[in-house]
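Weekly modeling sync, notes
Attendees: AB, CL, MP (scribe)

Item 1: holo prediction request
CL wants a bound-state model with magnesium ion before deciding which constructs to order. AB pointed out that an apo prediction alone won't tell us much about the pocket. Agreed to run with the ligand included and paste results into these notes for async review.

Input as submitted:
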Amino acid sequence: MLIVQKYGGTSVGNTDRIKNVAARVAKYRTQGDQVVVVVSAMSGVTDNLIKLAKEIMPLPNEREMDVLLATGEQQTIALTAMALHALNVPAVSLTGAQAGIVTDVVHTKARIHNITPKKVHELLKQGNVVIVAGFQGETPEGQITTLGRGGSDLTAIALAAALKANLCQIYTDVDGVYTADPRIVPTAKKLQEISYDEMLELASLGAKVMQSRSVEFAKKFGVVFEVRSSLNNNPGTIVKEETKSMEGVVVRGVSLDKNQAKVTLVGVPDKPGVAARIFKALGDAAVNVDMIVQNVSHGSPDKVGATDLSFTMDKPDLLKAQKVIDRLKKEIGLRDVITAEKIGKLSIVGVGMKSHTGVAGKLFETLAREGVNIDMISTSEIKISVVIDLAKGEAAMKAVHAAFIG
Ligand code: ADP
Ligand code: ASP
Ligand code: MG
């Protein structure tokens, strides 16, 4: 069997953990499996590199950021190869570029264009375990890129697709996907399986157990994968296409995204083309806008009215967004700009919502009982999200979990 195994930051957090990974890999290899290992940087390393860069300047050049961040994973591939050598297992480390991972040029959140894993195939054929640096690739011109935070998940899933692996295992520090982050909600339950769509929503809405883009990729290419623990042998959670039986459950999971920021534009002229200009400029600056709420205009037929417009994005994009808005403020004639970072986005997700009613009412009632004010609301067929005060986020999450899941 050809197996792709991905080990996250905590799983390679120190040399003992790396030895532990090597022992697990060696076990599979002794059984006769071919193993491709994808590793993250040791836990804390990427965060620390970002901190160092920001000490130099608040908005560092993104090309240089990628050159810096890619070094984290490069340390771990070499150490993991050494740990396998120490067990007499032949192993070779490869950077993302050496493994044939080609991306676009959107530095710090590049997308994979294609993978030509020629070298991986060659090394496997010679009997090696191949260890690939997660989270990185290179452009067709040879620039180093990274795939967005948590991007080693994407490396693993994309490699599993390109290599047509028989198995893709994502090893982390929890033994599967839970109905909520078990560190916040102690009563959260482990799921045996979850559909791509539910996992995708949970991941994009703050459940960092999987990078959302990696789940999108898995869905597109039909890569079935298992999320499991590197610290024990418990069976994990299988992520796969939706089955009929999954629809019986209304709410599969609850997530809380604490990494959001909000910008409110006060007194936006209410005429055609203004929103287009604002959001085009934000898009051009690579700011990923999430929720957008516009108030009803106070205008009259003979006079251009004004309205308020709020939008949310990931916190790290706030500075970039502020720069764009500052530039537009005069041009468009905005009265005021207010930013908020102490917000949280709480969401409930489940494919069963398609066929059940009353879910929103129950969610709002639960929040009201907790004294939580709802700032913004957004829904899709299988999720409801609300923006609330960050300070009340965890308590609200527990209450909502108790109401819908138990
Ligand atoms: P890795 O370094 O292995 O990629 P991450 O820290 O990125 O690991 O993701 C694992 C963490 O995700 C867990 O420690 C857990 O706190 C968090 N998490 C958030 N939501 C969930 C969830 N629904 N199920 C499991 N873990 C979750
Ligand atoms: N090291 C990168 C990060 O911390 C990628 C990953 O861990 O998946 O975001
Ligand atoms: Mg991760």
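Recorded for review: The pocket of aspartic acid (ligand 2) is lined by residues 8-9, 40-41, 46, 72, 134-135, 149-153 (CB under 6 Å).
Action items: CL to compare against the apo run; MP to circulate these notes.
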